[in-house]
Design goal:
There is one protein chain. The longest helix has 24 residues, at about 240-265. The chain has helices spanning about 45-50, 75-85, 110-120, 130-140, 180-195, 200-210, 240-265, 270-275, 290-300, 310-320, 325-335; strands spanning about 5-10, 15-20, 25-30, 35, 40-45, 60-65, 65, 70, 95-100, 125-130, 150-155, 160-165, 170-175, 195, 220-230, 235-240, 280, 305. It is built from eleven helices and 18 strands. β9 (about 95-100), α3 (about 110-120) and β10 (about 125-130) form a beta-alpha-beta unit. The protein folds into three domains: about 5-135 and about 310-335, Nucleotidyltransferase, domain 5, CATH 3.30.420; about 145-175 and about 250-305, ATPase, nucleotide binding domain (Nucleotidyltransferase, domain 5), CATH 3.30.420.40; about 180-245, Actin, Chain A, domain 4, CATH 3.90.640. By secondary structure, the protein is α+β, with helices and mostly antiparallel strands. The strands form five sheets. The protein has a five-stranded mixed sheet with strand order 3-2-1-9-10, with helices on both faces. Strands 13-12-11-17-18 form a five-stranded mixed sheet, with helices on both faces. Strands 5-4-6 form a three-stranded antiparallel sheet. The structure holds adenosine-5'-diphosphate and magnesium ion (MG).
Length: about 350
Amino acid sequence: MMLKKILGVDLGTDTTQVYLKGVGIVLNEPSIVAFNNRTQRVVAVGREAKKMLSRTPSHVTALRPIMNGVIADFDMAKEMVQRFLKNKTLPWSWLTEVVVSISTNLTEVERKSVEDLFREVGVGKVYMIEEPIAAALGSGLDIGAPTAHLVVDIGAGTTDMAIISINGLVVSKRLKIAGDHFNQEIIHGVKDEMKLFIGEPTAEEIKIAVGAAVPQTEKLDISVRGRDAVSGLPKEVNVRDTQVRYWLLKSLKTMTEALKELIDVTPPELVGDIYRNGVYLSGGGSMLRGMQQLFEKEIGVNVHGVDEPLICVVRGIGLIAENTSFYTNILHSFSSSSIIRL
Ligand SMILES: Nc1ncnc2c1ncn2[C@@H]1O[C@H](COP(=O)(O)OP(=O)(O)O)[C@@H](O)[C@H]1O
Ligand SMILES: [Mg+2]
């Protein structure tokens, strides 16, 4: 039996990842719960529950307890986290501490809800860190340096933008437009233009196969099946990259505008740093084709994609989990709350 167990958790809208100190990433599962309305019981969580998404019988609901970076359904989120953390592959310990990443600009109540959740599943100590800081750490940026870094994390539910300098957030912004929203726009586009109803998994498939933020040199297309909006019968259509780009135009514009606004309120010295250091894109949403080029064109600075954008946040949390005392020391000099402001 181990005395003390330290975990790092990225409780994402799309995916939950767990890092175990001394071991590495031990869990990577969809943040989904399947719930049986008849028995009022959770049937499955994670990968098992994802298989049920959009295909559930009427008495089973597959839902995402985390929405837009906040806990939307406390009981379901708790049950999900409980099942993840009581996983057979994780050792059991009386003393469990957790470092969890949170979205930027959460209210006190939303933050408290994250803390309560982990406490109620038996965690003794809960540290929190804002997602962009974790992403920056996980991308190997020297965030303690007296120079500013701009990190944009595009997840499923939110885009978190932050300027980080000397271990802290200088300015930050959270936008409820990210990967999920892209899928919704694709669902609408396919319905309006092609008169076809498709579900979220198909929209996701289209996005990954042919989605693009800027015009592509190579033509891309994908055929997908759904229900004809008029006849109600099954139908197959061909979706092209140019169509998807058009459907995503508005969301992408909102994103780049938000980033411009953030830079607008940043102190000039730091803007100079950003110009030198560039912008770092992390999160699964940043994997959309041409995302880097779009930001480069709109913002006019170099844009770097981080290594392995889907796991860079949990990697950053992992670095903290490995050396909590080092980071806690910094914490004491920066903040009086339990939020780690590095
Ligand atoms: N190749 C890809 N192209 C575009 N979007 C992608 C790709 N791979 C994953 N995504 C999107 O990334 C999002 C999940 O990113 P992630 O950083 O794991 O989110 P979260 O932290 O909110 O759980 C989803 O919306 C998913 O559709
Ligand atoms: Mg994330």
